[in-house]
Amino acid sequence: MTGPDRYHLSLASGGRTMMHGWWSAEEIARRQYTVWIGERGGMPDARITLTDEETGEVLTTWPEEP
To answer: Where are the domains of the chain?
Structure first.
């Protein structure tokens, strides 16, 4: 089941949330995740997270946790 706000992408920098985005399709959200890494990954202490809001599962983060 896919809802309009299911896949949540967030960008934090320096411990503060800077951007949010929500998509209904995981494929589109993952594509946007890659775009955000390229466009905003150079921000100080950047952290990009993709979460499935329906299950609460964190699907991926950048940079990867050790």
So the answer is: 7-62
